[in-house]
Amino acid sequence: MKAIGKRQKRVCWIVALCCALSSCALIHEDSAPASAIAPEQINLADDIHLARDGWPAARWWTRYHDAQLDALIDQALRDAPTLTIARTRVAQAKSDVALAAAGSNLQAVAFGVVDREHVSANGFIGPFAMNEPALGFTGPWYTEGLVGVGASLDIDIWGKQRAQTAASIGVNNARLAEASAVELELSTDVAQLYYGIQTSYRLLELLNQLQQVTDFAVQAHDARAMRGLEPRTLVEDARAQQLAVQRQIVSAQDQIRQFRESMRALIGAGPEGLPPIEPVALPEAQPALPSPLAYELLARRPDLQALRWYVQASFDRIDAAKAAFYPSFDIKAFFGYNALHLSDLFTHASQQINLIPGLYLPIFDGGRLNANLSGARAGSNLLIEQYNQAVLNAVRDVAQTGSRLQALDEQIRLQQRRVESIAFTRDSAQAHYQRGLSSRLTALDARQPVISEQVVLLTLSGQILGQEIALIKALGGGYRADPPVEWKPR
């Protein structure tokens, strides 16, 4: 008979549990996750190739062997406000991880409460409102004391808390990758500005040479016009060229100041915090495209890694949203002393012990859980589409920069030949002048087109250097995280 009774109780418990589980809120609709980008879309066209092959190194700017550039980038990576903001976001994400992880741990608190109260005669403890010492009622005023230790523990059976913690870890990893992306942005921007300044320095040198030519031309034509050997129009033509060169010099000087102020703001330097930048020769550009692009680009680009981690975190949020549909369990406990009179508080009779296992079943929630799941799924799909577009943009950046570098390389080669051809005319005029066969003015006039074409060549050299830095940025600047996160859509 006892065995039958135990069996009946067990069956009743199983039936009750099934009924409880079946009474949970139901998932009405959950759409499928968006699809990730196809691998073949992460390849470059076959007609885009550069002479050298390889990925940029972590400290890629040291390849230029320029101590000034090294110091400026190091200062930016140390003091730039944008990087401070990114690192603060990382610290905030770490705190969120700790907060999410703490939710599944044992929570305990010690407390003491003193309550001076007037008892209502019509309330739950109405008899204590009377003053009958013989019965132990000394009301209606009481000074209640409560002292003890309380604890609670959420039992994460369905993994809701674990999923929320995993989502927080994913966001933290994304913030770390974003900080690396800011470092890459800073280093490439500093390099671009630095070589913009150096290009302007070199431009000023050429313009100063051109100004010497135009100054002499104005003087020579003016002297001839004064003697009636030439019309005055030639003087004014020479002066117009002189003024044009002077205008270009002023523009170049202003460009240097603009670049310096942009650099100062970028690295967070004060009025005296930016060291002087001395002119140096422009380095020879050495652009390179790695042959195995494809998925390797995903690990090299910190912005793409950040997006992948955000997507992975969104999957964990979906898991947490699904787990919210199932019953939750917790255990609360209390041990302490509770008495209506402080004089009785710490007596054996005032001891109180509570042990409260709890089961919570979401039955009717007005659609809140389904709306939460729908929002988590929509947010995840949006992140996946953003990631797909970011991958396409990354490949486009590499392709466009590589194509531009190819075109600039060919233009520089042609411009160098053009300068050599025009320089032959200049050298011939100089030789005629040295032999007394022509005037100095003729020899100097022959220098003008050479200097003008050297300015064009300098402009192309500055552009190809800037595009090389842009390519380094498009390739991730030597950033190398762990292999790309493996997606597990849920």
UniProtKB/TrEMBL annotation:
Query: Where does this protein reside within or beyond the cell?
Result: Cell membrane; Membrane
What residue range is the signal peptide?
1-27
Pfam families given for it? OEP (PF02321)
Where does the source fall among the domains of life?
Bacteria
Record bears the keyword Transmembrane: yes
Q: Which GO MF terms does the UniProt record name?
A: efflux transmembrane transporter activity
Which PANTHER family does the protein's record reference?
MULTIDRUG RESISTANCE OUTER MEMBRANE PROTEIN MDTP-RELATED, OUTER MEMBRANE CATION EFFLUX PROTEIN
Per the record, the similarity remark reads: Belongs to the outer membrane factor (OMF) (TC 1.B.17) family.
UniProt name for this protein: Multidrug RND transporter
Source organism of this protein record? Caballeronia novacaledonica
